[in-house]
Amino acid sequence: MKLKHFTFLFILLSFFFSCKENEASKPTIKQDLLIDLGKLNNEIVQFQKLVTTNASPKEIVAQFKKSRLAYKKTEWAIEYFIPETARFMNGPALDEMELEENRSFEPHGFQVMEEMIYPEYDSKSKEDLIRELNIFQSNIKQLKSTFEVITISDDYVLDAIQQNVFRVIALGITGFDSPILQSSIPEAGESLISIPETLEKINAGNKSLSALKEITKKAQKYCTDNNNFNAFNRAAFISEYLNPISKNLKAFQKEEKIKNVKKSSPLKPTIETLFDKDAFDVNAFVLSEEYNYTKEKAVLGEKLFYDKGLSKNNDRSCATCHNPEKAFTDGLKTNVSLTGMSLPRNTPTLTYASLQNAQFWDMRQLDLEKQSVDVIQNKDEMHGSMENIHAKIQQDKEYVALFKKAYPKNTKPEAWQIQNAIAGYVRSLNAFDSRFDEYMRGNKNALNNEEIEGMNLFMGKAKCATCHFTPLFNGTVPPSYSKTEHEVIGTPSEASGKKLSPDKGRYIYNQMPQLVGAFKTPTVRNSAVTAPYMHNGVFKTLEEVVSFYNKGGGIGLGYEVENQTLPFDKLNLTIKEEKALVAFMKTLTDKKYQ
């Protein structure tokens, strides 16, 4: 009997230690990453061999695609933990610029290689391509070295995975990083593979994990079965697959009691999907905590916004040029000076202006506080004096009371608070309640078939979303939404003319050749009520805007725009597609302007 008991105990202990041994032998998340980086390196080595041995263009393109798929498996971690290196592995094929120091760096990585091999590989590019592949391999080594020494905790892993889902929505399926080859759809499916595989390392028995596995598998199959870039139904893919994946990730996090990552980001850590009504935090763009948005500041700011006393002659307020009925624009081709002269630029909307880190068409100010001072003190616009305004406000009992509510720690109004309050009002102008928003939150009746087709065109064939990023539809780059981009599109001086706009845009402040004619990418939200369009108001209708892009921008029209960042090939949109595109843009109108 004792022998049987001992034998049973021995078997039990053996089983226990065997399980422990098996658990210990399973690769960790970090080890998996290093293995996947090794696989990526192998694909790059094979790519090098094919180029070196003068393989056929077909073989080279096929290997390029395989290499990109291997990268997509690791992208969630590379982009999140080591973004500086990621930029030179899969960033745009445009110079990386440090405007503060007037320096630029040439681009490297997949998108540069893509331009070398597609649509037709020329062996003359062989040396340059091999050079790019060598740089890429060096970056892989750097990634390995970094991942070997950093700690990857569960909270950061989950945040990185969620960010990657948002990356697939806003960049992946739009063709942002595969602009010529358009291999984005199968790559989007590959990007999702890591989700269940990685979360299993945290807890394979989690209740939400089985649902995540199922929906991820279906999403991958959807990409495989519908891999035509132009025909891909992005509206269905986001609403039926990617948004549910996001929600299940949040459920997994709650069940595992994994804390949110504390960071300064416009995306709130509590959101379930990228399209939640309160997904974005305007305080991410403020100078410091004391500048944070409050309702009390917005109330005070609204009074200041409509106060003509802020101008020199008491005849112009902020609202004079930013009419709330026109989504805070003025409906004019370009603004008008105090003396009635036309100014060179169009008045942009203030709606969603707080969700970008650069103001004005030329991006000369980085925050809303400086933007308001710039306008108030501009001799052509308001010609006011902040010193005089501050003095007047301190003598106004109503203002003093409102300042006390907005800034309870202060005994009297301070000059910086005037700017901050006006900015606070502008920060209150983000409604996120358009029909598009309703659709993305589950109301399938919010958009009709033509509008859905327009959304798919906007995020696909028409390439609009590669500059006007979802869901802000401005140039603030996802998924971190911390940097606002400018573009050179070759805007004409007149709609029917043959001359390029003489306005040099950002170049006026940073005299780098890449910035001649560069302007901030504005939001398309509320565009149906903010005509006319472009920095000079050259186009009166959205139809004209779509036609301009369809032709390939300035270069497509025959202008010499050496630094154009907009793809200059024709989009080949049909009349029906152009109409659908305009119909979709009209769904981005907030309720109060409908």
TrEMBL record:
<dbReference type="InterPro" id="IPR036909">
    <property type="entry name" value="Cyt_c-like_dom_sf"/>
</dbReference>
<keyword id="KW-0575">Peroxidase</keyword>
<keyword id="KW-0479">Metal-binding</keyword>
<keyword id="KW-0732">Signal</keyword>
<dbReference type="GO" id="GO:0004130">
    <property type="term" value="F:cytochrome-c peroxidase activity"/>
</dbReference>
<dbReference type="InterPro" id="IPR038352">
    <property type="entry name" value="Imelysin_sf"/>
</dbReference>
<keyword id="KW-0408">Iron</keyword>
<dbReference type="GO" id="GO:0009055">
    <property type="term" value="F:electron transfer activity"/>
</dbReference>
<keyword id="KW-0349">Heme</keyword>
<keyword id="KW-0560">Oxidoreductase</keyword>
<dbReference type="GO" id="GO:0030313">
    <property type="term" value="C:cell envelope"/>
</dbReference>
<dbReference type="GO" id="GO:0020037">
    <property type="term" value="F:heme binding"/>
</dbReference>
<feature type="domain" description="Cytochrome c">
    <location>
        <begin position="449"/>
        <end position="589"/>
    </location>
</feature>
<feature type="domain" description="Cytochrome c">
    <location>
        <begin position="296"/>
        <end position="430"/>
    </location>
</feature>
<dbReference type="InterPro" id="IPR009056">
    <property type="entry name" value="Cyt_c-like_dom"/>
</dbReference>
<dbReference type="GO" id="GO:0046872">
    <property type="term" value="F:metal ion binding"/>
</dbReference>
<protein>
    <submittedName>
        <fullName>Cytochrome c peroxidase</fullName>
        <ecNumber>1.11.1.5</ecNumber>
    </submittedName>
</protein>
<dbReference type="InterPro" id="IPR051395">
    <property type="entry name" value="Cytochrome_c_Peroxidase/MauG"/>
</dbReference>
<dbReference type="Pfam" id="PF03150">
    <property type="entry name" value="CCP_MauG"/>
</dbReference>
<dbReference type="InterPro" id="IPR004852">
    <property type="entry name" value="Di-haem_cyt_c_peroxidsae"/>
</dbReference>
